[in-house]
Amino acid sequence: MPSRLPILAARFSVLAAIVGSGVLVLGRTTGLATPGCGPSSGCAAAAASVWATVPVLGTSTASLALSAFIALAMGLCCSAPDRGTRWLARVCALGSAAFLGVSAFERLWCPWCLVCHAGSLIAWISFELACRGASLRWSPARSGLCVGVALVAATLLTLVERRHERELASRSGQEAAESIAQIAGGDRPAVPAFEGRYRLGPSNAKVRVVVFTGYQCPDCRVVDAEIERLLGVRGDTSLSVFHFPFCVDCNPAVKQTIHANACQAALAAEAGGMVGGVKGFWAMHRRLFELRGAFSRTSLGAEVRALGLDEASFFKAFDAPETLELVRGDARRAVGLGLNRTPTIFVNGVELRGWNVPDAIARALEAAARSGAPASADKPPTGVERSLSEWLAETPVVMAPDSTDHRVGAAGSGAVVIDVFGDYQDDGTAELDAKIRAMVSKDPTLAYHYRHFPGDSKCNPAVPRSLHPLACRMARSAEAFGIVGGEAAFWAIHEWTLANHRVYSDAGLRGVAEQHNLDWTAIVALRDQAEATRALAQDVAMGQAAGVTELPWVLINGKRLAAWKGEGGDILQQVIATAKAGPGAPPGR
Q: What CA–CA distance (Å, rounded) separates 34 from 20?
């Protein structure tokens, strides 16, 4: 008989594989945000790769893996595993090993993928150890049942995926149709021309395409190739670009580096233009996309020489502060327009949403050609206008009851409700919280709810790694203050913690406790006990249900406000004013 302990290890490991693949399938079939997987994460890169879909079948590899793991779990849970289960474990392990190899080669580091593949491999190893020396028999009935369950599960999941894909395609198609109709309208006010520093195409083009891009962004590479292909068959279209690298070295709008070489690539493109003019910029632009932004300084020198540019002049421009300021200026311009993703495409000043719909870009260019709108009419909406329109289009999130709801301001269904999921170590959370509390103190119609969503994997399974190592401790301390001293104590320590989040210490906390005549010893004892940790876990679970993928995450009357600050006006104030004029808070708030 197989050994009991390794069999138990195999069962728990395949359960982990089911959870990992199940989370990925949930994102593919419902559109819910996958915890720890933002738009520019390894998960997103893996989902956009060719390895995410099974050729011919068209189903996702996550759904196929989940189906196989369910079948394997059935075999492992039988009292006497058979030879068919062993071969199924081997097939699953072989597939996982292959995908881990692909992930390492293409740098597709998806945490949930690693969970399911690690679970699969450990399950196989444990099963082999359990069955070492044991004689396993074939059980055709059991093997047939497991295979049948896997086929049924894969079929059902594929059908659900297809339905979700149709819904997404319909939504994107509607967005594209609305954008194209606006592009064709051409009834916008005249302003100075909207285009980048280097134009590809005629100076008097009827159709003017502007793209905010990044050289390590996979979708940007696809879009650039499609637009340049269309430029080759149209004589009335021009293209120019602005940089928006997801790298903190040159983009003050991003909080963490997603594309490590993105700033260097943007600098290389600008240096190419400084040395070689329009021709030099576009030659370097295309080569950077071919390289996917991956190069070293030495290999870049070889590329510069291959393009016929002077290497010494190129690196002088590459290293110049003025070049870095050009890239930073592009990023600031994006922020002023309320942009936070790439690629973002404008056609004659109108953003083309749903650009990934088949032929959407071609149809948008044709609509712009028919409209005949002059270049002086290219006026993208301001950040305030964009944020307001996006907020109005959002579907409200219904928040579950919260047993430890921390609220200041108005109560009742007539209030404008502001929900913030934040992190006490996050600069943006500190800035937003101070702004909202100042508004609430002056406006009796506002209700502000704060919820913890620490950027620390020790207490928040939705984040793949610990960005803020003190965030969990800070949140539990605030909850302990609330348990000992009530809501007034919670908000006192909340305000102090955010004001001092860069110099946070227990000594400072103790000073606040003594100032409010609170028992410091009780606070220290409570912050690691069940009540405080349960309150924190409840907030994290609510954040996951709400789809939180970045910090701070703000909802106004249940609708997410993607950008709460930017140039051109007070976005938060404008959205709140609109919320007051429209329907009130979601029922029960």
A: 11
What's the DSSP call for residue 347?
Answer: E
**Beta pairing, strands 344-347 & 406-409:** unpaired
Among 6, 13, 16, smallest CA distance to 123 is for 13
End-to-end CA distance of the chain: give it in Å, rounded.
59
Q: Say how far apart CA 498 and CA 502 lie, in whole Å.
A: 8
Count the neighbouring beta carbons within 10 Å of the beta carbon of residue 229: 12
Contact partners, residue 249, CB within 8 Å, separation at least 6: 257, 263
> What does pLDDT average to in each consecutive run of 10 residues of the chain (589 residues)?
73 87 78 59 67 76 85 79 82 87 78 85 86 75 82 84 73 67 54 80 93 95 96 94 95 86 96 96 96 92 95 96 95 88 93 90 93 83 85 87 90 88 95 96 95 92 83 95 95 96 91 93 91 93 88 94 78 91 53
Pairing mode of beta strands 406-409, 350-351: unpaired
CA distance 161 to 164: 5
Could you say which DSSP state residue 70 is in?
H
C-alpha span between 13 and 440 (Å, rounded): 49
CA 512 – CA 491 distance, rounded (Å): 11
H or E stretch covering 495: helix 471-499
Asked if residue 420 lies in contact with residue 552, where contact means CB atoms within 8 angstroms, the answer is: yes
Rounded to whole angstroms, how far apart are CA atoms 474 and 477?
Answer: 5
Concatenated DSSP letters of 519-536: -HHHHHHHTTSHHHHHHH
Name the nearest CA neighbour of 391 among 251, 566, 525, 535: 566
- Could you write out the DSSP letters of every residue in 172-228? HHHHHHHHHHHHHH--PPP-S----SS-BS-TT-SEEEEEEE-TT-HHHHHHHHHHH
21's tokens = 């693949």
Dist CA 327 CA 243 (whole Å):
6
Per-residue confidence (pLDDT) for residue 585, from 0 to 100 = 44
The structure tokens 């690539």 sit at 265
Could you count the other beta carbons within 10 Å of the beta carbon of residue 588? 8
Which backbone phi and psi does 22 adopt, to 5 degrees?
-65, -40
Q: How many CA atoms lie within 13 A of 145 on its CB side?
A: 10
